[in-house]
Structures are given as structure tokens and as C-alpha cells.
Amino acid sequence: MPDLATPNSILKFAAAAALAALLFGCASEPPRSQLGTSAPVKPNPPSQSVKVQPDLRPYASIGGYRAAAISGDYAAYPALAQFIEQMVQKHGFDREYLNGLFSQAKRKQWTLDYLAKSDQGLKGKPSKGGWTRYRSQFLDARHIDAGVAFWRTHQAALQRASRQYGVPAEYILGILAVETTFGGFVGNHRVIDALTTLGFDYQRRGEFFRSELESFLVMTRGEGIDPAKPVGSFAGAMGLGQFMPSSFLQWAVDFNGDGRRDLWNPEDAIGSVANYFAQHGWRSEQPVVSNTRGSYSGIDSLEPGIDREYPLGTLLQAGIEPAGNCGCDYPLRLLLLRHQNTDEYLLGHPNFYVITRYNHSTHYAMAVHELAQAIRRGYQRLAG
Asked: Which of 36, 140, 168, 307 is the most exposed place for a label (fewest CB within 10 A)?
């Protein structure tokens, strides 16, 4: 979630958390300056893997790959041969075509080394100043100015997406800003290499990535793409919005009407992110977060984070109330943001939770929310 694909690290101890997010959420690599964030950053554009339905329609084999047996980095991998057999039986792929394709796949040792280090830092509560450090990677002039410029360039598509899906333009832009800075860096890893490496050499999440590899092959065949050509994050996330292949199959849309779903195309990316939010329950005209006030006398009895929700009455009993009239007739999530010198508690509405379906991280969703607001203010100022 985010592109979590660049190895430029800024805050050393946060690299582990940044990647943790990717593997449990949207799966994008950290943008160039992001590999050092401190809170769990699940780079995960949409990354919830699902079972791919069999697709036996006749397709031309794109790329001209052919081999009687697998050679190269994955020649001695029985699990890959078994996977190919599954693709033949389930989806009607040509065995020799896949043998030839995977003979071209490269094992990404850098990715495996990085994940081995990152896995050691997956656990633990947010550290003091964690939100301050994370926020600084995104709430800057570069992201905001790029968002305003992108809005002005693609105003018609954003307006149409907002009208069709009920998602404000600024939240679509917030996602694209955090993920790839509007396409400024979409990743430079071949997706076939990334997913093959993680599917067959990364035991902790191998099943997930093999499922994504299955989706990727079905996706490229259906869209008429050479599967050796797409590049993305080190975890296989693609395009301006960093969709994993299973998310592409479920939620990507052809928003510019050219007959193809192309997440590297700004209009298709805009429509796809809006559709993703809509399908995950975005509520038009409802808030995302609320500030809090009160005595906080019972704060220790509650668990902050996106995995627990509380009726407003329970929060009031704990001395926590919305700073304004939120009209909350639904459960809320208690959010903890750790600044350098203080802790801040906010209330997350259902729309906040929708953002975390893109990337399962409080910090990620707050960065999207604050960037959305900042980009909207910048756009309105230019509009007069």
C-alpha cells in the first residue's frame, strides 16, 4: 500500500513495519522515501487474495514462450511444476508455454533478505513519535502539489468517478498520493519475478503469493498482456493504485472505455480506486474521523486500533466523546496516534475502516485522510 517497491530507506527501524503492512494488506512497496516509516504500514493496495474461478476460454499465448521443461533459476522446483500442472488443469494454460515463461523468471534474493529482516519486527505497539515520523513521509509539498496538479489535469475523470461511485475525489487522490505519488514511482520489479520468488521461496506467505501468481496469469491472459512485461512493487502490486492481481480481477474497471483495464492509465486507476472504495462500503456524505474530548478516565479499558469497534455509549462511559456533533448511530473505532511529545485519540467512522481495507494500518488510513484534505484545500485555493 502503497509504491512499496523502492529500497531507499530513511528511518531504519521503520522498514520492518513498512513491509509488514504490505504483506497483510494492499501490497505495494514503500514509496522512495517510505521504507523507513515506524508504524505498521501494510503496503497493500488491495491485497485480499481470493480463489480464482476457472477460465477455460481459448486465448492466444502472449509472448511466444515455449519449453519442454523449466530451466533457469526455477528449474529444480517441484512446487512450481505442480503449480503449472494446476494452471493447465484449472485454467487451460499450455504446459510448454508456462515452462517457457517460468524459465525466464528470476529469483529476487534482495526481496527475500529484506523480508527476513522485516519479519523480525512485525510485532509491538506503536512507538512514541511513530505517527510523527510516518506522517512526515507524506504530508509535504511534493505530495500535495502533485495531487493538486493531478486533479486539475484529470478533473473530468475524478468528477465522473465521484458521481458514479459516491467517493469524493480527494480520497481517490489520497490513495494515489500515498501509493505512487500519482505514478511517479510505480515500481521497477517484474511482477512475474516478484510473485514467483515470494510464491516459492517465502514460506511464511507462500500460499498467498502463489494465489496472486495464479491471478496474475489469468489477468494477463485475459487482458492480452505479455506476462513477462508488467513491472510493479517487490510484492507484485501494480499501477498507480498498486493493486495486487486478485484485486485487479475483482475491482479494476475500464474507466476510459478503451476496452482494457489498465491500472497504469490514470483514468482507469481513478475509476478502479473509486470502485474499490464503493465495493467495500464507502458511505457518501459521512465523515471519516472525528476529534475527541473528555476526561479519558476509562481509556485504559479500551483497545485502540482498527480491529475493535465500540458503541458511542461505551466510549462516553470511558470519558471519550466526539469533539463535535457527529450523529453517530453506529459503532466507532478508537484510534491512537503517537506524536513526538503527546498521544492523540481520534474516532474512526465506517469510512475510515473502508480506507484500511486498502491497507490494514491506522497510520496509512490517516495519511490518506490528511492528504485528501490538504489536496482539496490546495485545489480550492487555485480554483479561486
From this structure: 307
